[in-house]
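Notes from the 1:1 (GR / supervisor)

We went over the backlog. Supervisor wanted to see one worked example end to end before approving the batch request, so GR pasted a single chain during the call. The sequence is below; no edits were made to it. Supervisor asked that the structure be written out right there so they could see what the output format looks like.
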Amino acid sequence: MWCLRRCMKTFASRCSGPLKRWRHHDTRDTIFALSSGHGKCGVAVIRTSGPASQEALHLLTKLSALPPPRQVTLASIMCPKSGELLDRGLVVWFSGPRSFTGEDCCEYHVHGGPAVVGGVLQALGHLKTLRPAEPGEFTKRAFQNGKLDLTEVEGLGDLIHAETEVQRRQALRQMSGELGQLYQRWSQRLIRALAHVEAFIDFSEDDNIEEGVLFTVDEEVEKLQKELEEHLKDNRRGERLRDGVQVVLAGSTNAGKSSLLNVLSQKPTAIVSSIPGTTRDVLETPLNIGGYPIVISDTAGLRDSEDPVEREGVRRAKARVTEADILVAVIDVSNIPLILDSLLAHLHEMYINLQGDGPRSVIIVLNKMDLLSQENLSSTHKLIQQHGLPPICLLSCHTGEGVEEFLRILKQTLETIYGDPLQGAPTITQTRHRFHLTACLEALRRYGIYRHQDLVLVAEELRIAHRQLGTITGRVGAEEILDIIFSDFCIGK
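Structure output shown during the call:
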């Protein structure tokens, strides 16, 4: 057992080097920034972090002693250079490491007028031991001091930018550390497997380590491989909820696609005209449907045309159809009896195009129902249902009738596909997560190839797999991605 412990200790020291260098890089400066939103508001929060926070608090408030940690204290806030009273506000002291950044921190809650905020920031700027914070620097220090891993950092960034209820839930779950903990458990299992392999390589002859140790590693690697494969088979649900579900309006010319887009967005986003082929390019609008973020796209009418510009629009429309998460086939209901066969052929072709790495959904919208009698609508509806087509919604963009039913069907479809982010296993939310997880899985698969050829190569593949997982959480090899991640944060966060 001593050899296994020695291998694990050696391997851990190899992996922790890059992170240790980051933790000691440029963390002794004391930084300050406005952490609340810009503009006039009732209360603004200005934050400092670093070893000079205590000195700055004393110089700005003249308090004889530090306030009790994490308790609000009323104080006069003055300019240390002129002694002028800037505001009377609240100060909150956080002693490191029990703070957001892990350092000594102080928050100044002042009135939110631009003059007050500017005066306090200027007063802090007069202190030579302080400097303005860079974008995301508070969160970067929290990472460097071990308060957050990279998945939690990204969850915090997603929470700041969340615009819908579902995005908020997903971001909160990732910020809680559940995703990072899953990857850390996998990482620890890989470390143990690697330690066993290295022990067998180094000490099998001298210490008579039995080959059964390797069989145990084989079983563990196989389990990890299956868990990774299952984790990756998520239809990119987390990424789609983060960036917006792609909903594409498709159909023939003058079916009412642009009119439907305008009705849903409640503004004249697209030009509507009786002239066929008005829409030539893809128009996108982000919407919130029942808490789910979607990006709805209006496309050119699908038809043959001699116009080279319209042909390009049709090509782009067909390309967007293949990329859709949810396809909304918009059809002029007044023409259905005349083109039923071609309609069925067209929809079946769409089904073929939509086959990909996960489930796709189609909703059929029969527009211009105000032009037909109820009897004709009913018979047409039954006729199409006999062919086993997807959900059908009858509506009129002109009168608004049926739009609420369409939104209900769309929301139901979103709930069916993407569910509640708070339920089930945590999902992948970042493209970089998927990249490194895929690389980890490939390394585990190569383990099986080299298992009976060369144990040194086997150990290297386990090391690569571990490094890929560590890169996600920031445990190893984080330098090259840190600036990209933290640059998405605003000043003061």
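Supervisor's comment: The two ends are 46 Å apart (CA to CA).
Batch request approved.
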